[in-house]
Specification:
The complex is a heterodimer of chains A (about 475) and B (about 140).
Chain A: E1 6-9, E2 12-15, E3 27-30, H1 33-38, H2 41-50, E4 60-70, E5 72-80, E6 86-87, E7 99-108, H3 109-112, H4 116-126, H5 141-150, H6 152-157, H7 163-167, H8 185-191, E8 204-215, H9 218-224, E9 231-238, H10 241-263, E10 275-276, H11 280-315, E11 325-331, E12 333-342, E13 345-354, E14 357-358, E15 377-380, E16 388-393, E17 403-404, H12 414-420, H13 423-432, E18 436-439, H14 442-447, H15 456-465, E19 469-482
Parallel strand pairs in A: 3-4, 18-19
Antiparallel strand pairs in A: 1-2, 2-3, 4-5, 5-13, 6-10, 7-9, 7-11, 8-9, 8-19, 12-13, 14-17, 15-16, 16-19
Chain B: E1 3-6, E2 14-20, H1 23-38, E3 49-58, H2 60-77, E4 80-92, E5 95-106, E6 120-121, E7 127-131, E8 134-142
Helix pairs in contact in B: 1-2
The chains are: A alpha+beta (about 475), B alpha+beta (about 140).
Chain lengths: ~475, ~140
């Protein structure tokens, strides 16, 4: 741990403004001592850089699952004054609106376990995954433009899901101020054939179950549709695919070329290239980024629809007869305009979250009406060998701009993981442990071994003790498709 | 060795150092490194079709960065795996450009086994420089 880091709370550490010239606010890291010790040094340096962004308000943050990235650390959060500050693609990430969705079912583990191989094999054949897979839908140029504006609504209006699904997606599955005219021809070309596909890397589709003793907040769990032990759920982790990557790449290059000559801005890391939010450059990126947010919502909606179809074929029941209801869909790579309290005053903020999840408290605007009492559901995926969590936003999260963790966080590089684990051996071990897996890439599987990640239970414990969100239920993997 | 995959630069992604006796060789090494990170057997890519890449980017490191991005674009947008065949890297009045003929083929998932997908080239720690008689470039890619 760096020597300037001061412990200021049970699970809170601070890098003071005096740590490095140019810091406008302190940096804060959430985590237990054990977690913070495992963070690589680059996390602290990258967080200090984030503290230099023009217009950053109060403090820049790193969540308990944080690890080094480029520009922002993964798990990095910065709230920016939209009138005086900047927008930075490096604070959002290349995979714009990478996120997680959770669908509940009324199926019991005893019904699903005997069919898990059939289910996973059928899902693997039905949900495009891996490189060069194509997507569930093929869009014309006009359709793609419409989809950029409509997001998941585009899917629901064409029969891929229900109106009730939209109520349970952040922003209703359709963020406003998406402007397709700000999206390059290259991004369109790169994205339009991948809509409705899982992708690769750490993206997955997982069938999970609630084990005994793994419901921690019965009232909130019931509100969210988690009704008892043995219940089966489905989790999807994916993003905006090549489309979001190209939008980020296009604007990173553009900001790099204009930030100094046009706006007199400079940052210590080129991955923090930025432009004033209110400038034409800033607004162009905001319009294009919102298109990518919508394409990611659409992507996850299409895949969930395909999951419903596969379950229907295998169990010969309709999705509604199997209680296949979307619990929630969260984003963890975005910048959004939000009205949030800062030192007792409500302010409009452009909240950059890169590998961090919004966690609105009970009663806040933006939380679906059906969840108003419990707060916004939060989904934190573990590695494919470990558990995942459903949590809820908490009022104590105000200081963190109502943000929490997004995963368990890597502690081992992909290269080292590939040296230490063999994908085929890992698959066999997972099957011995009761997790049936299909993958588009065995080396890719090795990179995602559970031991390459922090202990998710430890991350959740720190998240809870820091007041960022409240654990509601824990899910254990039964079957997994890895892209 | 024309390129070397390196550890320790990025926890969640991949990094490599490419080398060449001149800039043309360096650029070729960089594109081959990308393919080696992605494919189990990069030699499985046959030269069945070719296309031309022309770039004009000002700074040398940004030209190299843009050049590598081209290969990711063609992979996703056209489903093509490409390697540079001939390349010329030029400097004129302080501005760098390149002209490249690349050859390859459409992704065939029965023959092209992907170890991982490279989704973006990043600017994190990007450095193109000359060390004695050798040009080197360090790059982190998003996977």
């Amino acid at each position: 741990m760096m020597h300037d880091l001061k412990k200021i709370g049970e699970c809170l550490y601070e890098i003071p403004v005096s740590h490095r010239p140019g810091m406008k606010v302190p940096g804060r890291i959430y985590g237990s001592e054990e977690i913070v010790r495992t963070m690589d040094d680059a996390v602290f340096s990258q967080l200090a850089n984030v503290c230099m962004l023009p217009g950053v308000v109060k403090h820049a943050l790193c969540m308990p699952d944080g690890h080094s990235g480029y520009g922002f650390p993964i798990g990095g959060v910065a709230a920016i004054d939209p009138d005086e500050g900047v927008i930075s693609p490096g604070g959002i990430g290349f995979d714009i609106n990478c996120g997680v969705r959770l669908m509940a079912t009324s199926l019991h583990v005893d019904e699903v376990a005997p069919k898990i191989k059939d289910l996973v094999d059928a899902l693997f054949n039905s949900v495009p995954s891996g490189v060069g897979s194509g997507g569930i839908v093929s869009l014309s140029d006009d359709d793609f433009d419409t989809a950029m504006v409509m997001g998941a609504r585009w899917a629901v209006e064409r029969g891929y899901g229900t109106k009730e699904d939209l109520d349970c997606i952040e922003e209703g599955g359709c963020i406003r101020e998406a402007d397709p005219s700000r999206v390059s021809a290259r991004a369109r070309e790169r994205g339009k054939n991948q809509v409705g596909s899982l992708g690769s890397g750490n993206h997955y589709l997982e069938i999970q179950a609630v084990e005994k003793g793994d419901i921690f907040d019965v009232k909130a769990a019931r509100d969210f549709g988690i009704t008892g032990e043995g219940q089966v759920v489905v989790m999807i982790h994916s993003g905006s695919r090549g489309f979001g990557h190209q939008v980020a790449t296009d604007y990173l290059q553009r900001f790099l070329s204009v930030m100094k000559p046009k706006y007199g801005l400079s940052m210590p890391d080129r991955e923090l290239a930025c432009a004033p939010f209110s400038s034409p450059d800033g607004q162009d990126y905001y319009g294009a980024m919102n298109c990518a947010i919508n394409i990611a919502f659409l992507n996850r909606q299409l895949m969930m629809h395909r999951v419903r179809e596969v379950f229907s074929e295998i169990f010969r029941k309709s999705p509604s007869d199997m209680g296949m209801r979307l619990v929630y869909d969260v984003c963890h790579n975005t910048a959004k305009l939000e009205r949030l309290p800062v030192d007792g005053r409500e302010r409009l903020l452009l909240v950059h979250r890169k590998g961090a999840t919004r966690a609105f408290a009970p009663g806040m605007k933006g939380v679906p009406a059906r969840y108003a009492e419990s707060g916004q559901p939060v989904l934190i995926g573990g590695s494919m060998q470990t558990a995942s969590y459903l949590l809820a936003g908490a009022r104590s999260g105000a200081d963190a701009f109502f943000t929490t963790a997004h995963g368990s966080g890597r502690v081992m590089s992909r290269m080292r993981a590939k040296k230490e684990f063999n994908g085929r051996d890992l698959k066999k071990r997972m099957m011995d442990d009761g997790i049936y897996i299909q993958t588009a890439s065995f080396p890719g599987l090795a990179e995602e071994a559970g031991a390459a990640y922090k202990d998710v239970d430890m991350v959740i414990d720190a998240t809870s003790r820091a007041g960022l969100s409240r654990p509601v239920a824990r899910f254990t993997p039964m079957g997994n498709i890895k892209g | 060795m024309p390129f070397e995959i390196i550890d320790g630069m990025s926890m969640a992604d991949a990094a490599f150092i490419a080398r060449g006796k001149d800039l043309a060789e360096l650029f070729v090494s960089g594109a081959r490194a990308l393919l080696s990170i992605m494919l189990h057997d990069p030699e499985s890519v046959m030269a069945r079709e070719s296309l031309h890449i022309d770039l004009d980017r000002g700074d040398l490191d940004i030209l190299y960065y843009g050049f590598l991005q081209e290969f990711l674009f063609y992979k996703d947008a056209r489903g093509l795996l490409l390697v540079p065949v001939r390349i010329e890297v030029r400097e004129r009045d302080g501005s760098w450009s390149c002209s490249c003929e690349a050859a390859g083929e459409a992704i065939d998932r029965t023959r092209h086994v992907f170890a991982t997908d490279v989704k973006a080239v990043t600017l994190h720690g990007l450095e193109v420089r000359r060390e004695g008689e050798v040009w080197t470039a360090r790059t982190v890619v998003d996977v």
